[in-house]
Amino acid sequence: RVSPHPPPAPPQALPCPKLSSFLPAPGPYLLSIGVTLGAHSIMERERTQQVIPVRRAFPHPHYNDKTFENDIMLLQLAWKADMTDAVSPISLPRNFQKVNPGMMCSVAGWGRLEVNMPSADKLQEVDLEVQSEQRCIARFRDYIPITQICAGDPNKRKNSYSGDSGGPLVCDGVAQGIVSYGDVYGTAPNVYTRISSFLYWIQKTMRQYKQQGSA
């Protein structure tokens, strides 16, 4: 992802549209949406793609749409995906596993490539460096180190941006974060939900609804 040089201005939080923004109070919901797996282009129907309806959505019960705290959601699929060369699971981190400053991670998505450009047609990926907690604390007033990750070198024109929300931040083959929010100009660093802080909730929710279909 390549972002333009920003005009001088204080950072402002710019969340990407999230499914949870359109849901009522916390709880599981029946939705008429589908998940597309194995996709590279979102404008073409590729042979590698699998489209599976979503049976239920589980936004975190304490998600805050003002501060983006607890910005995580689980989707229960109507059936299990077929494992192929284009579709495979990714490892989750250990409970409260640390992601240290200086670690290189990658993020992928179909978000905007520039401020005034439309979303990408083909999947984009960029390497980002994990930053110190102090950098995001100084930049974003609602940043919470225990549940969020600060990533993206402010000296480089590389970052996730609008439309990438919900995408994975992958470090050494492990999904450590989820794209959450950043500033309006797309300049790094951005804030990512720290998956390791939510493993108990993930496991509890999956166990609770295991008997009601594949998750």
TrEMBL record:
<keyword id="KW-0865">Zymogen</keyword>
<dbReference type="GO" id="GO:0006508">
    <property type="term" value="P:proteolysis"/>
</dbReference>
<dbReference type="InterPro" id="IPR009003">
    <property type="entry name" value="Peptidase_S1_PA"/>
</dbReference>
<dbReference type="Pfam" id="PF00089">
    <property type="entry name" value="Trypsin"/>
</dbReference>
<keyword id="KW-1015">Disulfide bond</keyword>
<dbReference type="InterPro" id="IPR001314">
    <property type="entry name" value="Peptidase_S1A"/>
</dbReference>
<keyword id="KW-0720">Serine protease</keyword>
<keyword id="KW-0732">Signal</keyword>
<dbReference type="GO" id="GO:0004252">
    <property type="term" value="F:serine-type endopeptidase activity"/>
</dbReference>
<feature type="domain" description="Peptidase S1">
    <location>
        <begin position="13"/>
        <end position="207"/>
    </location>
</feature>
<protein>
    <recommendedName>
        <fullName>Peptidase S1 domain-containing protein</fullName>
    </recommendedName>
</protein>
<dbReference type="GO" id="GO:0005737">
    <property type="term" value="C:cytoplasm"/>
</dbReference>
<dbReference type="InterPro" id="IPR043504">
    <property type="entry name" value="Peptidase_S1_PA_chymotrypsin"/>
</dbReference>
<keyword id="KW-0378">Hydrolase</keyword>
<dbReference type="InterPro" id="IPR033116">
    <property type="entry name" value="TRYPSIN_SER"/>
</dbReference>
<dbReference type="InterPro" id="IPR001254">
    <property type="entry name" value="Trypsin_dom"/>
</dbReference>
<keyword id="KW-0645">Protease</keyword>
